[in-house]
């Protein structure tokens, strides 16, 4: 218990002092211009932090408290390009604005999967006009799924995972059945003579069954899954992460652990499509699926005992679909954004004690609520990371590095992270990471 508490305190302390995304790094972002800034889609939830023209003070800093527990995925810094004086230093003003944001929302500087945009407005031409324009930060976050959105996700799966019967075959199997019984005498000499009795008698004789082999005729329906042929069809998938990664990596006898909360719906559909191919399903030894606590209130999710973790045997595509569908429904959308990935991995290795490694299908936008428990995992974790278009979550890089595993995105496989030395760097997509003081930080 002391070890867990120490590690938790160490983790929280290090996160408070860590700066995975520095202000200097962000100052290298390219500026885009618009005549007048308009939010891309007002239905998308966002936190608005307001500033005045040519000022670095955040007018409503208390609003930043609402970011607690939110999965931020994009931030816009909006300002005006107009200058009252020719020597006005807009980059320096932006720098102090970022520093002020860091004071009230330091957590967004510890997330490397957030997309930052610097947007300069060109439509105002004097201070009075510019005062009427919006200036400040627009912070977009992922909305936790609700019962309503969870139902939509489930309906989406039901609508797209429709096995079609293509044939019926009759099978004849031999079946051993009991056709009678007798009782064995207690005396050895009677047993040698083959004497049998119809009743147990007062001696409580031992019963012996008489078996026969019968031929049993059964019918089996053969199904096909039409959408499996359209892995690259955007009607079903906006990307094909799982299919591409599975093709590149020849994993077999897999302990496959997957997040089945609402945010992962399209990737669950990809997984179902992949398992619909018989040769793929045979590569899986055991599935472990998790929904982050079976819809328990967030306050009732202790670290390491959140629950909502279910092992299942890959008997058939239909069976895998039905079981995953049940676990999704129990999760009712997954509640808050962080997930219990580490707890699920620990339970997975308890389920499959002879498994030497695990494959984790994880939501890049979600943190691990139980990351401090990573020390309990002693076997390699290979992570299929979903939703990495705007960058990768360094928690998953850390899981791979500390366990001797790997990270896999739709475009590349990142291996040998455990062999990296302090100061070494590498690319994941367009992002360049450096290992600095045992943490991965963004660099240029």
Structure description:
The chain is an alpha/beta fold. It folds into 3 domains: 15-142, 60s Ribosomal Protein L30, Chain: A; 147-163 and 226-443, Rossmann fold; 166-223, no CATH class. The chain contains 12 helices and 17 strands. It has helices spanning 2-17, 23-26, 90-104, 127-131, 147-160, 188-193, 241-248, 265-275, 278-281, 317-331, 341-351, 394-403; strands at residues 31-34, 46-50, 71-80, 115-121, 136-142, 164-184, 206-224, 254-259, 284-290, 309-312, 358-363, 381-386, 406-408, 413-414, 425-428, 431-436, 439-443. A 7-stranded mixed sheet has the order 10-9-8-11-12-13-14, sandwiched between helices. Strands 1-4-3-5-2 form a 5-stranded mixed sheet, with no helix packed on it. It starts with a helix and ends with a strand. Residues 1-17 have low confidence and may be disordered.
Number of strands: 17
- Overall mean confidence score, pLDDT: 87
Separate helix tally:
12
* Shape designation: elongated
Q: Which CATH-level-2 architecture of the largest domain?
A: 3-Layer(aba) Sandwich
Largest sheet: 7 strands, mixed
Radius of gyration: 29 Å
How many angstroms does the end-to-end distance come to?
A: 41 Å
| CATH class wording of the largest domain | Alpha Beta
- Count of all domains: 3
């Amino acid at each position: 218990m002391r070890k867990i508490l120490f590690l938790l305190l160490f983790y929280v302390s290090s996160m408070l002092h860590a700066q995975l995304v520095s202000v200097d790094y962000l100052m290298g972002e390219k500026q885009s211009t618009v005549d007048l800034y308009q939010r891309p889609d007002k239905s998308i939830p966002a936190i608005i932090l307001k500033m005045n023209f040519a000022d670095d003070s955040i007018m409503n800093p208390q609003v930043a408290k609402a970011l607690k527990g939110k999965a931020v995925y994009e931030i816009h810094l909006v300002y005006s390009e107009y200058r009252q004086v020719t020597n006005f230093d807009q980059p320096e003003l932006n720098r102090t604005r970022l520093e002020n944001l860091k004071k009230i929302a330091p957590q967004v500087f510890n997330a490397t999967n957030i997309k930052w945009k610097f947007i300069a407005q060109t439509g105002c031409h004097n201070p009075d006009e510019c005062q009427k324009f919006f200036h400040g930060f627009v912070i977009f976050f992922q909305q936790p799924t609700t019962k309503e959105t969870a139902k939509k996700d489930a309906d989406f799966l039901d609508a797209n995972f429709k096995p079609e019967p293509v044939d019926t075959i009759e099978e004849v199997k031999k079946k051993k059945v009991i056709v009678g019984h007798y009782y064995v005498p207690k005396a050895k000499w009677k047993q040698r003579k083959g004497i049998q009795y119809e009743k147990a008698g007062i001696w409580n004789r031992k019963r012996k069954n008489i078996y026969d082999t019968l031929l049993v005729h059964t019918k089996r329906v053969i199904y096909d899954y039409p959408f499996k042929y359209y892995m690259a069809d955007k009607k079903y998938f906006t990307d094909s992460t799982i299919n591409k990664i599975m093709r590149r990596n020849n994993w077999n006898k897999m302990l496959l652990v997957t997040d089945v909360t609402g945010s992962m719906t399209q990737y669950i559909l990809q997984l179902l499509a992949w398992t619909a191919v018989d040769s793929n399903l045979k590569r899986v030894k055991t599935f472990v699926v998790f929904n982050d606590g079976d819809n328990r209130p967030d306050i009732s999710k202790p670290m390491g005992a959140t629950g909502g973790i279910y092992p299942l045997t890959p008997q058939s595509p239909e069976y895998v679909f039905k079981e995953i569908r049940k676990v999704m429904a129990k999760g009712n959308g997954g509640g808050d954004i962080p997930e219990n990935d580490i707890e699920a991995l620990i339970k997975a290795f308890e389920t499959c004690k002879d498994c030497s490694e695990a494959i984790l299908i994880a939501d890049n936008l979600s943190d691990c609520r139980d990351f401090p428990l990573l020390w309990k995992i002693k076997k390699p974790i290979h992570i299929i990371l979903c939703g990495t278009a705007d960058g990768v979550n360094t928690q998953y890089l850390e899981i791979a590095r500390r366990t001797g595993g790997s990270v896999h995105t739709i475009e590349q496989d990142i291996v040998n992270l455990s062999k990296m030395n302090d100061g070494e760097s590498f690319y994941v997509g367009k992002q360049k990471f450096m290992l600095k003081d045992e943490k991965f930080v963004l660099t240029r």
